[in-house]
Amino acid sequence: MKRIRVRAGNQNYPIVIHSNQLRVGRIPKQLHTDGGRVILITDKTVAKFHLKSTTDRLEKMGLRAEVITVRPGERSKRPGMVVRLAQEMLAKGANRKTPVVALGGGVVGDLAGLVASLFMRGVPLVHIPTTLLAQVDSSIGGKTGVDLPEGKNLLGTFWPPLAVWTWLGYLKTLPPRRVREGLSEALKYGYIYDPPVLELATGIDPRNPLATPDALGAMVERCAAAKAEIVSRDEREGGLREILNFGHTLGHALERVMGYHQITHGEAVAIGMMLELKLSRNSGHTEPGIVEDLKERLVKLGLPHHLPDNVTIQELVDAARHDKKKTRNDFRIIGIRDVGKTEIMNFTAAELSRALSASI
Amino acid sequence: MKRIRVRAGNQNYPIVIHSNQLRVGRIPKQLHTDGGRVILITDKTVAKFHLKSTTDRLEKMGLRAEVITVRPGERSKRPGMVVRLAQEMLAKGANRKTPVVALGGGVVGDLAGLVASLFMRGVPLVHIPTTLLAQVDSSIGGKTGVDLPEGKNLLGTFWPPLAVWTWLGYLKTLPPRRVREGLSEALKYGYIYDPPVLELATGIDPRNPLATPDALGAMVERCAAAKAEIVSRDEREGGLREILNFGHTLGHALERVMGYHQITHGEAVAIGMMLELKLSRNSGHTEPGIVEDLKERLVKLGLPHHLPDNVTIQELVDAARHDKKKTRNDFRIIGIRDVGKTEIMNFTAAELSRALSASI
């Protein structure tokens, strides 16, 4: 068992990571303010595999879950779903003290987190992340959001949970492509913050991550700790948190160009890291061999490492201009000086096109 | 000119009140982060009377306003409107640093405030309240929200503004019924916190509030200061802020029973204060004469002071059970021991019905 604390404003919350079963240590008392009743929001896929065992565990903790399920997939992350969930909560008699438990991956966490932050101006929230991506990354840091037709996460809040309860056993039913998605984000933490994660992540078999429980546990713990440290020092993205964007400026752009059904977030980030690392190398500040090192790891894990043939650099740069991280006309891209060491690189759109053309 | 500071979490913001013209003192630097461009959200009625003069004033402060208007009235406070506003902001090229200016009454403030808190997870916000209700009450304290079919303000956030800029001149075009609405809330501050407000409010002519500029200015300042002190000590409604509910538990219930088009919020609060004050008197803790005092003031101002004949006590109590302030089966009602001194009274639904029947 590992316990990591995350600071959020004046408060802090624990991430509790278990390998044997869903255990949580002490239950935050705010979870009992509605007499132990909680609203559990999940998706139909997670529900099929894990709902019964999870609500049984919650029952043992004295928490009675009323369940609301949504369809799996990014399309559930829309404003209308926030309204639907709030109305179902009202129909179940939820009030301003009824906690929300988000059981699922990034989509469920972002959506349920937003609902929790808005329902009667905010109710307590617990994340139980069931995908590797959510366990190493998206359940930590308090970001919530839904998409608009114009782009992802355009409406959202910062709403820190009371706790994140992570159980590695959920990963047993996770499809290999989704495991790879989490491993891609894990590699990011290796490059931007905690180099030992690289070897741990590369040693995991995406088809059977629980075959190496020690490496898996250590990797999840180190990534969660890295994310926790970064967001604790910068809750609302004024400074340090920006390094989390490594691989994401061009990764998000690629998702936008290809459509969110064609490529997973993790695959897009894998290619984004390759492209941004090449930009970094070509700027001359990067230790030799890093690009090749990342490429080898991506190949070993079955993740893509170059831009698909049908996507042009111009399309990518145009899509990046729409990315919400861009506030002016310039792009800030996270470069890597050495494993674990980042730098900020600035490009205009024209410079970015040129640099990408020269580096691919 | 009066300047009042409001604390919100680790930060604080000023309310700047002027009688001569819209002036703001020093402009918060976050208003210039998008090169001086701001999104101004208002309604069509306010726009007709005050948009040109306001954007001219903003221009003089170096702020270039891009304007989005909504229909006046509570029906604009719905989730779909948040999405529409966000999409219009995107169409105008707004980014995560583009401030929102809310020019209007409570509806515009609540709606624009919610949009500001959600757009790209939050952008800076300034309130320019144009109704008396907004100037004395709703623009202060950071609450935002939209309604659902099930009830008012069921989705919302706490999103403190950078500043509240109040100019009394906006009240010149306010219909008398809307002035009375603000005077009703002002009386509330007299009873719960600052007794001199009672005389100031009762001396104002709802058909021409600017005929007594000194009384009007003093009243707005004192109410704003009272609200500022209360919310500074209790940002998220754990304790002191509850006294703001005086007149509102039954007032909200009455709005729900009658429908929001039949009665203004202020009229409902006037009746709510009468009923709750009678409950308080009948509990035996209240100084004599207070009920009569409130009644006289309401009559003088042209505000209602008793339950409409077609509304029964049972309907009222049933509606109050739906009020979101109720977290359990009991009602917490703010009683008045003496002018400026409050107490909490607890009732079950049955007790409340009996007590209301006995006190009317």
Give a verbal description of the structure.
The first copy, chain A, is an alpha/beta fold and 360 residues long. Chain A has twelve helices and eleven strands. Chain A has helices at residues 44-60, 79-91, 106-118, 132-138, 176-192, 196-202, 213-233, 248-258, 265-282, 290-301, 313-321, 349-359, and strands at residues 2-8, 11-18, 37-43, 64-70, 100-104, 125-129, 146-148, 151-155, 163-167, 330-338, 341-348. In chain A, the strands form three sheets. Chain A has a seven-stranded mixed beta sheet, sandwiched between helices. In chain A, strands 7-8 form a two-stranded antiparallel sheet. A two-stranded antiparallel ribbon of chain A has the order 10-11. In chain A, helix 2 (79-91) packs across helix 3, helix 5 runs parallel beside helix 9 (265-282) and helix 9 crosses helix 12. The first copy, chain A, is globular. Chain A starts with a strand and ends with a helix. The model of chain A has no long low-confidence stretch (mean pLDDT 93). At the A-B interface, helix 2 and strand 8 of A face helix 2 and strand 8 of B.
